[in-house]
Amino acid sequence: MDHPEGAGKTDDARLGFDRRVRLEFRGAKLSSDGGLLVMRELDDALGLSDLASDALHDSRRGKNTTHRLDGQFRQSVFGRLAGYEDVNDAERLSLDPVMRQIVGGRAVDAQAASASQMGRFETETLAAPENRKALADLNGQWIDRFHDRNGLKYIVLDMDSSVSPTYGDQEGSAWNWHFDCTCYHPNFLFNQFGMLKRCALRNGNVHSAYGWRDLLDPVIARYAKRNLMRFFRADAAYASPAIYARLEEEGYFYAIRLPVNAVLREKIAHRLTRPVGRPSLTKVKRFYEDFHYQAQSWEDERRVIAKIEWHPGELFPRVGFIVTNLPMEPDWVVRFYNQRGTAEQHIKEGKQAINWTRLSCKGMAQNEVRLQLHALAYNLGVFLQGANLPEEMADWSLTSLQTRLIKIGARVVRHARAITFQLAEVAVSGTLFSRILTTIQRLRAPPVLT
Fold first, then answer.
1. Sorting pLDDT into bands at 50, 70 and 90, what band is 376?
2. What whole-number distance in Å separates Cα of residue 95 and Cα of residue 286?
3. 188 lies in a domain?
4. Phi and psi dihedrals of 347, rounded to 5?
5. Final residue of a structural domain among 312, 330, 348
6. In what order do the strands lie in the sheet with 181-184?
7. How many helical (H) and strand (E) elements, i.e. helices and strands, does the chain have?
8. Could you tell me the residue range of the domain that residue 420 belongs to?
9. Do 253 and 277 fall within a single domain?
10. What is the pLDDT of residues 298-310, one digit of tens each?
11. pTM of the model
12. Would 254 be classed as within a structural domain?
């Protein structure tokens, strides 16, 4: 006889070292992901799944429509947020009480989809061209919805590429000499809050800046009518006159690192001789040079700032060049550019917490879908970080939120008119949990106009 909650009835087990201890297996009553209920509340407060339902086309027919599209979409995104990188765990999650609640909401008999159903959903339904385009745009829509509730005074865009190692004969994978592996070479565009505005999956052997316009132009269009100051940062791989011209055309301030060449070094030759006097054993001597420069491929000359650092114990200075149209002092521009390093931290968080390098499908389109689903899961976590959380968890990383909040043990007790989730009180207390919910519910307020 099956258990009413979906778990099969089994004989109780006892431990030999203490016969008083009895073990019961009630899989459909227990979950290791109780904190996902908070994320579902955040989803509902911002209407994120509603945006997805409006954007995605449901091509399924007949028996394939047993599960609603919004439910399967949430199962894909929330599962990744909880650390389930693909559909391999879908069979077990289909009976998980928290996942069932997230997928079905008020439906009493709701059940999450099986592994085969989720596989078809991700590799067929979402892999259709119109849905891949919609998924790529969805991150921007989600971020706009978040900012509509919180307001936005200015925008800083950070572009960077990364590596997703591949194994086997996967479409688009190729050897990349820089990363020293066979891989994909995805491109990312973040804002100053760590939110992933847009991403693109690319072949493994393309240049870091390949396809930059496809990534940048939709984001430029999204902010074209907003009264905001706009900034852009990137490393030397994106040092291209076409990028400079595009940003200048749209009124963006930018700071982009320049590769060192002989002409640039000649401009600062007087700084490349060790300063007079005994070198300090502890302090770095730092100098700035500010000049205009025009490479052969540039139609116009542009401002370039050089930073020269003499470090204790080193025979030669460390030199870096930044091309910019910012009117600030050189040290300010350098500090602003150096904050670009946060993009690398965001990519690291995406790899560690969401595991967005897990792109194991054979087809490029299917792997593109999975990268976008990983990105949406990542952004959902970042939204919670940006929701003015209680002070005790204000500095938690996405990995900490996953391990301390999302991975809370939970037991469900169903009554005629109520569903009770009994949550383990370990890293997060009941009081703190309530304060998190209160913070999220404030996001239901009317939008803030910018």
1. very high
2. 61
3. no
4. -65, -40
5. 330
6. 164-165, 181-184, 174-176
7. 15, 16
8. 26-128+388-444
9. yes
10. 999 999 999 999 9
11. 0.91
12. yes
